[in-house]
Amino acid sequence: DLGQGNKNCFDAALASELTCPICLQLFNEPVSLPCGHVFCFDCIQTMGEGLDQHSCPECHAEYSATESLVKSIKMCSIVETYRAAAGRRLSDVQITDDKLHSHNSKTEMDEPKKLRLESEITELNHRLEMAEDVLRKEKEVELTMTTADAQMRERVNNLLGQIRDLSQSYSEKVTHLVEEELKRGETGVRSRVHQASEWTKQLRQAVLRAKSLMTEEDEAAFRAELYTQLINKPVEEEKEDALAEPPVSLAQVCPMLENMNTTLREQLEKIHRSLRRTFNPSELTFDPETAHPNLLLSEDLKTVTFSSVKQTYPSLPQRFTSFFQVLSSQSFSEGDHRWEAELDGSPWIIGMCYSKKLARHGVPSALESNPDSWCLMWFDNLLTAFERGRGVPLKKTKVSCRLEMNLSFRTHRLSFYNISTTSEKTHIYTFKVNLTEPVHFAYRMMSGHPKAILTMHS
Predict the structure, then answer these.
(1) Cross-referenced InterPro entries, in alphabetical order (predicted)?
(2) Which end of the chain has a smaller Cβ tally under 10 Å, C or N?
(3) Which of 12, 173, 197, 184 is CA-nearest to residue 90?
């Protein structure tokens, strides 16, 4: 009995060494990790599924992936030998039914293994929470993107629809104009055809009457009747010249057509600017209706130059008349924006303002003294920041010809940077602005120099 007991203890110890720590059964296709611990191939592969990092269930040493698993041929041979030697005894001790074995494994599992599995389950739950959080955020991004894209498509389709409507309206107006002119000529021709027809009819009647008078024996009566028919009632022979008039000319339509073309170009340009603004919310061009008469704007409305000769701009209430100033066509009320300004040839003031609250005449129209503007002035090599009409001297410096402006409605800041060709950009000044209504970009040329110029890049 003692020998038998020792033999049973040896068998139990050997079986424990040949048992997988994961499934608690004899190894099946045993593989060895880099740390030396052995597990069933299916068990270690199942535990590693879905994980970015892999670690040994025994010692937690990390390994790269299942490719680093090495099949343990020696352990496989030992297990097969043990199975052959144990025979039916091993089959009786170990229950092959998966569900019953799983139940017994859980009840017989020692405490350290339970703790290890609980730790691994906790780690998996943590990773699952992280994955679910990533999925939630990605779905939020997807919803935000699809909503923004739908709004973008709607805005673009509306603008393209306006272009189609303008084109259709222009086509109908031109057609109506041409038809009116052609009908006027056709009406005249029809009137002359009618008159010619009446003239021919009268002549036929006169000829017939004259023939009937040939039977008249009384010569005096004959002459009197003939004179009455042909002399006193002459057919309208002067109408012969009218028949030779040339076809109707549409030259008189050209001035009206040119006016329509001008209106169409202005309307299309407005829509094109809206399209560009839709594609680029930071698009910035200058408003010709606000430019001082001594300021010239480029065709793309992005460059301002000085003219010693005042331009014959229309007199409009929004036009500056006292200072060389101009505003942007666009207003800004949300988002983040960045612009670059190339300035040369003249001292300057650039910044943002409430357009509706900025006067257009006299001292109140000066950008730097207005209580509803935030701007930077460079004059006499001195930089000064003006916030709501109050100046803050900064430093005496030779500013480069290129500045950067950043406007953020998210952080409520308007920042200026100096961009040098030899070094990185340097911060000049930042306004903390709590904007309550849309703002416009504003520029003032402080001296009328022929080489003064500003070009904006957005």
Answers:
(1) B30.2/SPRY, B30.2/SPRY_sf, Butyrophylin_SPRY, ConA-like_dom_sf, E3_ubiq-ligase_TRIM/RNF, PRY, Znf-RING_euk, Znf_RING
(2) N
(3) 12
- CB-CB contact of 9 with 27 (8 Å): no
Collect all residues with Cβ–Cβ distance below 8 Å to 428 and sequence separation of at least 6.
376, 383, 394, 403, 415, 416, 417, 418
Q: Which among 100, 14, 121 has a CA at the least distance from the CA of 57?
A: 121
Amino acid (1-letter code) at residue 52: D
Integer Cα distance of 397 and 407 in angstroms:
23
- Average of pLDDT values for 265-289? 89
Answer yes or no: are the C-beta atoms of 26 and 94 closer than 8 Å.
Answer: yes
Q: pLDDT by residue (tens digit) across 152-192?
A: 899 899 999 999 999 999 999 999 988 888 888 788 888 88
| pTM > 0.85 | no
Distances (CA, A) of 75 to 9, 30, 171, 231, 412: 21, 7, 90, 143, 69
Q: Which two tokens stand for residue 437?
A: 């209504």
The reported pLDDT for the residue numbered 100 is 47
- Could you say which DSSP state residue 231 is in? I
Give the pair of three-digit tokens for residue 392: 């803050």
Distance of CA 264 to the CA centre of its chain: 25
Q: pLDDT tens across 111-125, in order? A: 777 888 888 888 899
Record the tokens describing residue 57, joined without a space.
């269930």
Could you tell me what percentage of the chain is helix, strand and coil, using 3-state DSSP and rounding each to the nearest 5?
50, 20, 30
CA distance 82 to 90: 9
Q: What is the pLDDT of residue 235?
A: 52
Q: How far is residue 388 from each of residues 371, 378, 385, measured CA to CA in Å?
A: 4, 17, 10
What is d(CA 190, CA 213) in angstroms, rounded to the nearest whole number? Answer: 35
3-state secondary structure 285-349: CECCCCCCCCEEECCCCCEEEECCCCCCCCCCCCCCCCCCEEEEEEEECCCEEEEEEEEECCCEE
| Other Cβ atoms within 10 Å of 150 Cβ, number | 10
Q: How far apart are CA 192 and CA 323, in angstroms?
A: 64
Residue 432's closest CA among 455, 409, 454? 409
Residue 357 structure tokens:
């609250």
**Cα 16 to the center of its chain, rounded Å:** 67
The answer to whether residue 246 scores a pLDDT higher than 80 is no
CA distances from 30 to 40, 50, 69 (A): 5, 22, 10
For residue 425, what are the contacts with CB-CB under 8 A and spacing of at least 6? 404, 417, 418, 419
Which is nearest to 17 in space by CA: 9, 42, 105, 93?
Answer: 9
